[in-house]
């Protein structure tokens, strides 16, 4: 039963909003948002006898902060995972962001040929340069790589068979699987070989009059090692073309050959040179651009794809076109280090050691006995399924506290403004310098001080 005296301690909404704390919250979060949070807080206090009516502003502030965290916000990535899917994969450089912001706040010539005054293609601004970068006769771009694979199979293998190794029947994020994408395209999946060993004759032995293509798929997020066998792209291309079949390659990561430690035989240019008819890859992985699915290969096949009705349903918007145009320009003009993904993958141990040392020095003279900070060796990764099994040695800051558990430190960092996302290893919170922007260091220092009460 409600306590009438307790209920009277809950201020009316107009009184709450008129108080100085209420006005401060309105200035920070907006009137309607604060009023809605106040009503929710009042209801929670009425329903929970354990809540003190005197803490209503504390409850309102907590609700507003939680609501704010539901919106997209800038976060500091201390995980060491460069293409972190949960954090938006490839970040853009400041110059790219500023350039694109100018385009997005006005009109653009997205589909206008300024020479003729007639309608043009939304790919025209970057198409030729992207063809040059990949070595392709032609390219097409849709909204992500899954869409690129779907479109490729729909156009070239509808109601026809496609041979895929059992070791390459991958599942990508969100439980989307190659067999399901194949089914949606209207293609007929033919599994060949085994999980760990697939031979060339497994493909050729499965060919029938209804076979359209061989499909080779990048093994995203995992590796098969040990007793293995898989035919090369060149071998598959030769056998496919002998039988008037296509060789289609879902390369996934989109390596153009500028990332340290990648296999030169698995770049887009190399795969096409080995005989693949079409290659699909992501724009927001090793390319370092926006979310997009890029199809590169034979001009006649790209022409057929561009004419298909699905192309319009899956086409990119002006934002994607603008970012991709600027990203490709940076490659063309040898300004690749302005692409954060390329800068982070090539960041030296010395650079990361300097960053960690600067962070330590900015904190150590204020650290109390309850805090232990230390520079440590780290192992980062490119992430995004792009280079499975390949670690990136780096440097990081280890954080421990006798006042807070590692779980509490991680949570307090995650709930800071802006949120800092780290990782927990060996009973310590670690912030990996590989994925932290130099421009974030000053802000990060203040956040750590606040989180650890130093």
Automatic annotation (TrEMBL):
Q: Which residues carry this modification: N6-(pyridoxal phosphate)lysine?
A: 285
Q: Which HAMAP family match?
A: SelA
Metabolic or biological pathway, per its Swiss-Prot or TrEMBL entry: Aminoacyl-tRNA biosynthesis; selenocysteinyl-tRNA(Sec) biosynthesis; selenocysteinyl-tRNA(Sec) from L-seryl-tRNA(Sec) (bacterial route): step 1/1
- What is this enzyme's catalytic activity, as reactions? L-seryl-tRNA(Sec) + selenophosphate + H(+) = L-selenocysteinyl-tRNA(Sec) + phosphate
Family label = Belongs to the SelA family.
The principal location of this protein is: cytoplasm
The GO terms describing molecular function are: L-seryl-tRNA(Sec) selenium transferase activity
- Top-level EC class: transferase
Identify this protein by name.
Answer: L-seryl-tRNA(Sec) selenium transferase
Which cofactor names does the annotation list?
pyridoxal 5'-phosphate
Protein location: Cytoplasm
Name the keywords, alphabetized.
Answer: Cytoplasm, Protein biosynthesis, Pyridoxal phosphate, Selenium, Transferase
Organism classification: Bacteria, Bacillati, Bacillota, Clostridia, Lachnospirales
Q: Which Pfam families match?
A: SelA
EC number(s) on record? 2.9.1.1
Query: What does it do?
Result: Converts seryl-tRNA(Sec) to selenocysteinyl-tRNA(Sec) required for selenoprotein biosynthesis.
């Amino acid at each position: 039963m409600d306590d009438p005296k307790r209920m009277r301690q809950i201020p009316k909404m107009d009184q709450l909003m008129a108080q100085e704390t209420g006005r401060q919250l309105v200035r920070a979060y907006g009137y309607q948002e604060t009023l809605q949070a106040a009503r929710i807080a009042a209801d929670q206090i009425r329903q929970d006898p354990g809540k003190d009516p005197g803490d209503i502003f504390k409850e309102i502030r907590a609700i507003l902060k939680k609501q704010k965290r539901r919106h997209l916000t800038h976060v500091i990535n201390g995980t060491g995972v460069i293409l972190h899917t949960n954090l938006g994969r490839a970040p853009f450089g400041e110059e790219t962001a500023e350039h694109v912001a100018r385009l997005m706040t006005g009109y653009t010539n997205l589909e206008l040929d300024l020479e003729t005054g007639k309608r043009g293609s939304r790919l025209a601004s970057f198409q030729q340069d992207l063809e040059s970068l990949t070595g392709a006769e032609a390219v097409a771009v849709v909204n992500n790589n899954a869409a690129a694979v779907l479109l490729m199979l729909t156009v070239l293998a509808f109601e026809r068979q496609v041979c895929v190794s059992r070791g390459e029947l991958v599942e990508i994020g969100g439980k989307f699987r190659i067999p399901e994408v194949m089914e949606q395209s209207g293609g007929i999946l033919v599994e060949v070989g085994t999980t760990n060993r697939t031979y060339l004759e497994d493909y050729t032995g499965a060919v029938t009059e209804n076979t359209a293509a061989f499909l080779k798929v990048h093994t995203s997020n995992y590796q098969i090692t040990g007793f293995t066998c898989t035919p090369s792209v060149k071998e598959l291309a030769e056998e496919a073309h002998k039988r008037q079949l296509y060789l289609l390659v879902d390369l996934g990561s989109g390596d153009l050959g500028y990332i340290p430690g990648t296999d030169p035989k698995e770049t887009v240019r190399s795969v096409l040179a080995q005989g693949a008819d079409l290659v699909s890859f992501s724009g927001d992985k090793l390319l370092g651009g926006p979310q997009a699915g890029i199809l590169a290969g034979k001009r006649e096949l790209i022409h057929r794809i561009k004419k298909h009705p699905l192309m319009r349903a899956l086409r990119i918007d002006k934002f994607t076109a603008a970012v991709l145009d600027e990203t490709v320009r940076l490659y063309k003009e040898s300004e690749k280090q302005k692409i954060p993904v390329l800068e982070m993958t090539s960041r030296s141990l010395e650079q990361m050691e300097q960053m960690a040392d600067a962070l330590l020095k900015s904190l150590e003279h204020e650290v109390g006995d309850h805090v232990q900070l230390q520079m440590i060796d780290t192992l980062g990764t490119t992430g995004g399924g792009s280079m499975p099994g390949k670690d990136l040695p780096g440097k990081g800051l280890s954080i421990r506290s006798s006042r807070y558990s590692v779980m509490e430190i991680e949570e307090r960092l995650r709930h800071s403004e802006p949120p800092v996302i780290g990782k927990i290893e060996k009973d310590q919170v670690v912030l990996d310098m590989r994925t932290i922007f130099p421009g974030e260091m000053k802000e990060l220092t203040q956040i750590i001080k606040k989180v650890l009460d130093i």
